[in-house]
Amino acid sequence: MLKQFAAMLSITLFILLFVVPFTSADQKLKVVATIFPLYDFAREVGGDRIDASMLLPPGVEAHTFEPRPQDIVRLNKADVFLYTGQFMEPWAADLLKGVTNKGLVAVDTSTGISLMDEEEHGEAQGEEHGEEPPEGHAHHGHEGKDPHIWLDPVLAQTMVDTIAQAFSQKDPLNSAFYQANAESYKARLKDLDARFAATLSMCQIRTIIYAGHFAFGYFAKRYDLDHVSPYKGFSPDAEPAPKSIKEIIDTIKSVGSNTIYYEELIDPKVARMISGETGARLELLHGAHNVAKDKIASLSYLKIMEANLPKLKEGLECQ
Ligand SMILES: [Zn+2]
User: Fold this and answer.
1) How far lies 191's CA from each of 162, 186, 243, 252, in Å?
2) CA 319 to ligand 1 centroid distance, Å
3) What residues form DSSP beta bridges with 203?
4) How far is the CA of 287 from the centre of ligand 1 (A)?
5) Ligand 1 being an ion, which residues bring their Cβ within 5 A of it?
6) CB–CB of 238/170 below 8 Å?
7) Is 285 helix (H, G, I), strand (E, B) or coil?
8) What helix, strand, coil percent values describe the chain, rounded to 5?
9) CA dist 244 to 231, 252, 272, 314, Å?
10) pLDDT tens-digit profile of 78-111?
């Protein structure tokens, strides 16, 4: 009898220890996401059953970030690591080599998405003249692939599915919860996409003139817009050439635009210079890479994109 009881107790302990690791309140799935949209998608899918954090410090420019030794420590304690892909986080593979945590599920959220080459954007200003990329750009140049998939609300839905699958794999007991959250969040992304499509189909001006780096390529392609930037490649870490700026000024004049968009988290000095030359007004078009620390709780991918919509509507004259 005592033996039976001991056997039952050990089975019970085994179940508690190995089969139900994430059901109690203090045993949430620990998720580390590199950039803000992944962090936001994770908290939408995971709700209160995960403990989500961002690898990038808030407010840090995403393309120039380099991981620190303490990031390996964080991943060694995590259950799931979400990154955009090798073109946004070229350092992810090396970082993961340093991680000893065999249970970590590392998720490339660009899985299943066909990445665009630089050429598919049309040409970056200045490119047709065969100029070499500026020095120091190569390691962020991502071999010509554009990492900004999250800015297309349709591709964002694929990323949400990938995240829900990863959570379900690591925490199968909560799989139905993650899948249901993913479905309701994807419905909101579909609604966002429908609103962008309806508004942007009516624009008189079809070119987004962006004084930041080339972040809105997938977005522009989705809504059949053109997109020009004085930066080559997809990273804001190099100064644009004067000739590229001159070409942007010419483009503003030729398309009749009165708006020059600038990117988040960087002093918009290039946009200001172009505005000074053309009289075009400055407007923030937020690429959602990262947000300031005091905005992490209050901002979301959806709020950022919803704030971008009226700015595009006005600047591109959509009515
Ligand atoms: Zn970017």
Assistant:
1) 20, 9, 40, 31
2) 29
3) 318
4) 7
5) 215
6) no
7) coil
8) 50, 10, 40
9) 8, 12, 15, 25
10) 999 999 999 999 999 999 999 999 999 999 999 9
Q: Which fold has domain 200-315?
A: Rossmann fold (3.40.50)
Domain ranges within the chain, ordered by starting residue: 26-109+119-190, 200-315
- Residue 281 CA to ligand 1 centre (angstroms): 22
CA distance 122 to 82: 30
pLDDT, residue 266, reads: 85
Q: Which of 296, 307, 294 is nearest to 37 (CA)?
A: 296
The rounded Å distance from CA 264 to ligand 1 centre is: 10
pLDDT tier at 214, thresholds 50, 70, 90: confident
CATH no., domain 26-109+119-190: 3.40.50.1980
pLDDT band, residue 15 (cuts 50/70/90)? very low
CA 215 to ligand 1 center in whole angstroms:
5
As given in the structure block, the two tokens for residue 221 are 């392609």
Q: How many angstroms is it from 214 CA to the middle of ligand 1?
A: 7
